[in-house]
Design a protein that fits this description.
Helix content is 31%, strand content 17%. It starts with a helix and ends with a helix. Bound molecules: threonylcarbamoyladenylate and magnesium ion (MG).
Length: 333
């Protein structure tokens, strides 16, 4: 009987679309069984599993079609848990954690042995973060283990910012998506690691900016991209991309051949030479936080229009635009 039930569960998991709901208990039970579950965070939705269970971690990589050299972020509930998974929580890291957690910041610290190398892609460091989302914090508090969770999108595609985005692409591969509504930040966490002298290095830009970090821990380096360097994971230049080619143009560019199959993703102003039906503005009032919240959903909508090309312009002269410009660059061809 148990076997039949098990097979049925497996079948349901593989052949029906994920249930979307707000049942923390159900999410917890599935995660304890070793299943992979969609979870909300303030940045983007995550594809979560028990970080200490190597089979569950392997399932995350399989479901996302993610290369094994790209390590996962480990999510915890409380700052007191850092020392369970990191062997060194030095002063600058503590300061950053106290300033920005729960929130869109990942700290890369030396790992303890209980974090499997499959989570960290063989690195002896682990990326840790406390997300700022009430449902997921409650879930993490109920679990006896931390959650490894990359963004819940197929590798290389746009990150999801509502539960339905996760269901659209990975729904047939996971049993449950915890629905926490639209993400309030909208782009992935800022990733900060440290050099040998414990000086901070930004590996990935986010809405916690260089300025905000330097105010807490002083001089900080920004790591620049490389094509595929396992020592600098998370730095892949081509990422977060729609299927339709996205191209960056200067905002006053009129040398291109625009047609009715041309799209435009604008910050606060429409492009005068492109049909307005094919355009989306990230924030008509020029609010960078609203623009960040809208970025990925807007790219998804434009991607569905079946256009030949989507143009966009970098956001110039607006404080806090660095993460958006980084994602536009990485999504573009
Ligand atoms: O906001 C976020 O960080 C979201 C939510 C779900 O928390 N997660 C996310 O995960 O963006 P993902 O897997 O899409 O990106 C994580 C990045 C990876 O590109 C990985 O290379 C980098 O974090 N990373 C993880 N562990 C690392 C480590 N030990 N050293 C350097 N980079 C690391
Ligand atoms: Mg991702």
């Amino acid at each position: 009987m148990a076997k039949v039930e098990y097979d049925l569960k497996t079948y349901i998991c593989q052949h029906m679309s994920a249930e979307i709901g707000t049942d923390i208990q159900k999410a917890a039970e599935l995660l304890i069984e070793g299943k992979v579950v969609g979870i909300p965070t303030e940045t983007v939705y995550g594809l979560a599993a028990n970080a200490l269970n190597t089979d569950a971690v392997a399932d995350i990589f399989r479901i996302k079609n993610r290369p094994d050299f790209d390590p996962l972020i480990v999510h915890i509930a409380d700052i007191s848990q850092v020392e369970l998974y990191a062997s060194l929580f030095h002063e600058k890291a503590v300061k950053l954690a106290e300033a920005f957690w729960p929130g869109p910041l990942t700290l890369v610290l030396p790992k303890r042995n209980n974090i499997p190398f499959s989570v960290t892609s063989g690195l002896d460091t682990v990326g840790l973060r406390i997300p700022r989302h009430s449902l997921t914090l409650e879930l993490l508090k109920q679990l006896p283990f931390p959650l490894a969770a990359p963004s819940a999108n197929p590798f290389g595609y746009i990150s999801p910012t509502i539960a339905q985005h996760v269901a659209d692409q990975l729904g047939e591969l996971i049993p449950y998506i915890l629905d926490g509504g639209p993400c309030t930040v909208g782009v992935e966490s800022t990733i900060v690691g440290f050099d040998k002298s414990f000086n901070p290095v930004i590996y990935r830009k986010g809405m916690i900016t260089l300025n905000m970090i330097e105010r807490v821990v002083g001089k900080t380096q920004v790591f620049t991209h490389s094509q595929s360097n396992p020592q600098a994971p998370g730095m892949l230049t081509s990422h977060y991309a729609p299927r339709t080619p996205l191209k960056i143009i200067s905002s006053n560019d009129n040398t291109n051949n625009f047609s009715n199959r041309t799209g435009f993703l604008g910050f606060d102003a429409y492009h005068p030479l492109i049909p307005q039906n094919n355009q989306i503005l990230l924030s008509p009032s020029g609010d960078i936080f609203e623009a960040a919240r809208n970025l990925y959903a807007s790219l998804r909508i434009l991607d569905k229009l079946g256009l030949d090309v989507i143009y966009c312009s970098l956001i110039i002269g607006i404080p806090g635009a660095e993460a958006l410009n980084d994602r536009l660059r990485r999504a573009s061809v």
